[in-house]
Amino acid sequence: MQSPRKPGWLGIDVVAVLIFCALGRRSHDEGITLSGLATTAWPFLSGTVLGWLLSRAWRNPTALWPTGVVVWVSTVLVGMLLREATSAGVVTSFILVASTVTAVFLLGWRAVFELVARRRLDS
Fold this sequence. Notes:
about 120 residues; mainly alpha
């Protein structure tokens, strides 16, 4: 089942990254302010947008492969590179946590979408 090509799909990825960043700020007692969230999120959101461009996600935004995987890897890789470049801090444990949580968020909704679409086709 092809997914509708609507700009809202990018919005789901943006919200997923913002939730990841808000959870991270909260877990480190940094507070969730608009400026604080923007400071934390911009490197990862830059990666998300690059992932959308590289995968041409607008063609099949709900696809787990390759769209979701490219968006996820780009989000983590670019996010970490930009954090390192701006001295925001990158440690192995953070890379592991960020990779895991963003995988659940960015790949998870696509996996659910594909599962529901397949079940509808089987019905």
